């Protein structure tokens, strides 16, 4: 039994003490470092990779949302652009109609003015309008009726920049004259 006990008390080869690092080989040192710090590095790398992966999904979703928002706003702007074009067209037509109606009214007022203030001995051979200019050729029995008409035109201030372009006595003794004047549009507005 002593022999058996002696065999049992024989030193076993298990050493629970860690050898200092200087005594370990380079491959053992690398394995030791990889098992302790390597797992932390791998865990950190996995966390970074997963966060980049999920961030990519978020960025893709944000990009898709922005594309949809831009497409919606582009469609809205295009529809508003068409409406704006239509509004501008209508405004242009309204201003043209207003100008036309105003011009018609001005021309009628000038004709009415000439009708009321022209002596009966004076007749018009030609009466024309172009924008804010009136031109006419008239024939008067004598210079007195011509002077009366000219004075009335000057006094009323409905016609400005009056230019007597031609004044001549005809063979029958009547006075023929050509007159051009600017219509005072501001007095009609």
Structural notes for this entry:
The protein is of the alpha+beta class. The chain has a domain at 119-187: 2-Layer Sandwich (Gyrase A, domain 2), CATH 3.30.1360.100. It is 60% helix and 20% strand. It is built from 3 helices and 4 strands, in the order ααββαββ. It has helices at 2-8, 26-117, 143-156; strands at residues 122-130, 133-140, 159-169, 175-183. It has a 4-stranded antiparallel beta sheet with strand order 1-2-4-3. The longest helix is centred in the middle third of the chain and has 92 residues, at 26-117. The chain is rod-shaped, with a radius of gyration of 54 Å. The mean pLDDT is 82.
Tags for this entry?
4 strands, rod-shaped, alpha+beta, 189 residues, 20% strand, Gyrase A, domain 2
Brief characterization of the structure:
With 189 residues, the protein is an alpha+beta fold. The chain contains three helices and four strands.
Number of strands: 4
Low-pLDDT regions: none
Number of H- or I-type helical stretches: 3
Mean pLDDT: 82
- What portion of residues belong to β-strands? 15-25%
At the fourth CATH level, what is the homologous superfamily of the domain at 119-187? General secretion pathway protein M, EpsM
As a percent range, the share of helical residues equals 55-70%
| Order of neighbouring strands in the sheet with most strands | 1-2-4-3
Q: Give the termini distance in whole angstroms.
A: 140 Å
Q: Globular, elongated, flat, extended or rod-shaped: what is the shape?
A: rod-shaped
Could you spell the SSE succession in H and E letters? HHEEHEE
Taking all Cα atoms into account, the compactness measure Rg is 54 Å
Give the C-level CATH assignment of the domain at 119-187: Alpha Beta
Structural class: alpha+beta
Main beta sheet, described? 4 strands, antiparallel
């Amino acid at each position: 039994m002593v022999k058996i006990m002696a065999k049992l008390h024989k030193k076993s080869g298990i050493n629970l003490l860690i050898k200092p690092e200087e005594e370990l080989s380079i491959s053992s040192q690398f394995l030791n470092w990889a098992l302790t710090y390597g797992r932390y590095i791998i865990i950190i790398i996995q966390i970074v990779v997963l966060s980049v992966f999920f961030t990519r999904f978020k960025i893709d979703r944000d990009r898709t949302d922005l594309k949809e928002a831009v497409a919606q706003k582009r469609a809205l702007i295009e529809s508003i652009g068409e409406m704006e074009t239509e509004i501008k067209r209508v405004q242009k037509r309204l201003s043209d109609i207003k100008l036309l109606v105003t011009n018609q009214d001005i021309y009628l007022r000038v004709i009415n003015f000439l009708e009321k203030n022209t002596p009966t001995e004076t007749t018009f051979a030609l009466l024309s309008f172009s924008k804010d200019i009136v031109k006419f050729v008239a024939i008067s029995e004598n210079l007195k009726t011509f002077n009366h008409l000219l004075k009335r035109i000057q006094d009323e201030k409905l016609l400005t920049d009056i230019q007597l372009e031609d004044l001549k006595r005809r063979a029958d003794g009547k006075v023929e004259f050509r007159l051009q004047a600017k219509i005072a549009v501001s007095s009609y507005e």
